[in-house]
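Need a sequence for this fold. Nothing fancy.
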């Protein structure tokens, strides 16, 4: 069952003051969609790497949680073209890991890289933008895995062309609060990579930061996406993982190598702790 919670702004602030830093989110009582900004206010959305776990399933559905445990999260998109006008009728694919950092559809998942999730489809889905350029997925808040900050993958496909492949990055402080306080996200170690230390998040920049709001019993992450319809890139074939082997002893295929992620990036460092971590989570706190 999906875990229903009622996190309040006051509770989040209190947790931050107590040392479990988190985001301060505006409270609201309804699920009314956010206003669409003026065209000039929406910048072209930066691309971010697809990663090894994309599957071209064209699985048309709005609820992608499949009953998984975790904090309810709606993932909403408003898609614009290069002029800033809303863009109806384009396909939006979404995929992300579960509360424990595992992707459906692939073997080699889990802390020891031995969990086989081939054939599973949780936390994956496809929708077509409506006349207002919007689409919305009902999911759960993603967990994390070594070398990456909290993120949601998405792809915008227009006909036979993938116009944009990118990721949504969620507030570090909110992620920290959820991971530290809810059993579904409990791990034996601290998350090692934050938005401020993830090379992919840093390269993508502000246009990939989701606007997160607290709703009744859920969070809603909204991203205003602006694509260039003149940028044509063929849809790549689905990723094919290496043949399964029960001898796997290291991280699962596609997980960050020990030298850093992405390949060629600086080596990963130990997870920051104490005051250093608090400053990274809430920069204004230090």
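Here you go.
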């Amino acid at each position: 069952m999906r875990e229903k919670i009622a996190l309040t702004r006051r509770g989040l602030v209190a947790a931050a003051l107590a040392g479990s830093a988190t985001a301060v989110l505006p409270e609201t009582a309804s699920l009314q969609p956010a206003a669409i900004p003026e065209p000039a206010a929406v910048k072209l959305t930066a691309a971010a790497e697809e990663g090894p776990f994309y599957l071209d399933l064209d699985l048309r559905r709005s609820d992608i949680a499949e009953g998984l445990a975790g904090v309810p999260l709606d993932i909403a998109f408003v898609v614009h073209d290069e002029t800033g006008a809303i863009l109806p009728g384009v396909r939006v694919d979404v995929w992300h890991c579960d509360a424990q950092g595992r992707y459906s559809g692939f073997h080699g998942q889990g802390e020891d890289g031995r969990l086989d999730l081939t054939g599973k489809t949780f936390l994956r889905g496809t929708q077509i933008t409506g006349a207002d350029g919007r689409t919305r997925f009902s999911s759960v808040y993603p967990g994390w895995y070594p070398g990456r900050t909290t993120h949601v993958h998405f792809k915008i496909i227009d006909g036979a062309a993938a116009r944009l492949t990118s990721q949504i990055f969620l507030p570090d402080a909110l992620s920290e609060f959820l991971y530290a306080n809810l059993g579904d996200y409990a791990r034996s170690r601290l998350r090692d990579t934050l938005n401020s230390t993830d090379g992919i998040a840093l390269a993508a920049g502000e246009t990939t930061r989701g606007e997160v709001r607290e709703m009744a019993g859920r969070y809603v992450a909204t991203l205003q996406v602006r694509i260039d319809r003149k940028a044509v890139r063929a849809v790549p074939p689905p990723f094919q993982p290496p043949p399964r082997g029960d001898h796997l002893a290291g991280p699962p295929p596609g997980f960050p190598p020990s030298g850093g992620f992405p390949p060629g990036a600086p080596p990963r460092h130990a997870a920051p702790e104490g005051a250093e971590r608090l400053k990274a989570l809430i920069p204004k706190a230090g």
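For context: The longest strand covers residues 72-80.
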